[in-house]
């Protein structure tokens, strides 16, 4: 696993650093320790820095954004209180992925009707959206401008101009505050120099800020196909950005 650019103050978040109820729920889900991806992604998002994670299927990407966002909501409630609208916005391009994500979030947060699982009371702070419409939370549509965290699952597909999803995604993101922490999760890919880079739409997505990039190498035999833009490497940032010229 690699982290780019290197962040000196970035320390992994261990299980015992999480809220006691959340940690208890995770242990009941058979978590012993967090994976390195989850530890560092949690640290990045809780420090309110934007993030791009490139990792293969089955590497724990979903938990890597659910754990820190649930922890964020818990800390927000303890320090500030109830928010008027959702604090977390989760976007995906398929309904099946959203349902799986929502079910997992409920389990982690203790929102299922299970007396053995502690309640973290975060359900009302989550809003899940499918492309450009709100799925199951129509009453929160006008309140997405209060979101403090926006997670885009399969961000590489969501910004693929050939799939026609970028317009809808952009309309949603226009409503969120300018200081919202944005996190994108995608399958791994890199150029011939084995360096990951941001596409032009990703640069726009992250509002020209420099997100932290966590890259988990795909196992041997993992096959992905991508159309890669010709890019240029910025001397001050060791990752690739598209050439606008």
Give a summary of the structure in a few sentences.
This protein has seven helices and ten strands.
Category from helices, strands and their pairing? alpha/beta
Tell the overall outline. Answer: globular
Helix content: 25-40%
Please give the alpha-carbon distance between the first and last residues. Answer: 32 Å
Number of discrete domains: 1
Any idea what the CATH superfamily is called?
P-loop containing nucleotide triphosphate hydrolases
Order of helices and strands: EHHEHEHEEEHHEHEEE
What is the residue-averaged pLDDT? Answer: 72
Just name the CATH architecture. Answer: 3-Layer(aba) Sandwich
Q: Spatial order of the strands in the main sheet?
A: 1-8-2-7-6-3-4-5
Instruction: Fill in the CATH topology.
Output: Rossmann fold
Q: How big a fraction of the residues is strand?
A: 15-25%
User: How many whole angstroms does the radius of gyration measure?
Assistant: 18 Å
Count all strands and give the number. 10
> What is the count of DSSP helices, taking H or I runs of 4+ residues?
7
Keywords: ATP-binding, Helicase, Hydrolase, Nucleotide-binding
Protein name: DEAD (Asp-Glu-Ala-Asp) box polypeptide 59
InterPro entries: DEAD/DEAH_box_helicase_dom, DEAD_box_RNA_helicase, Helicase_ATP-bd, P-loop_NTPase
Domain Helicase ATP-binding: 30-226
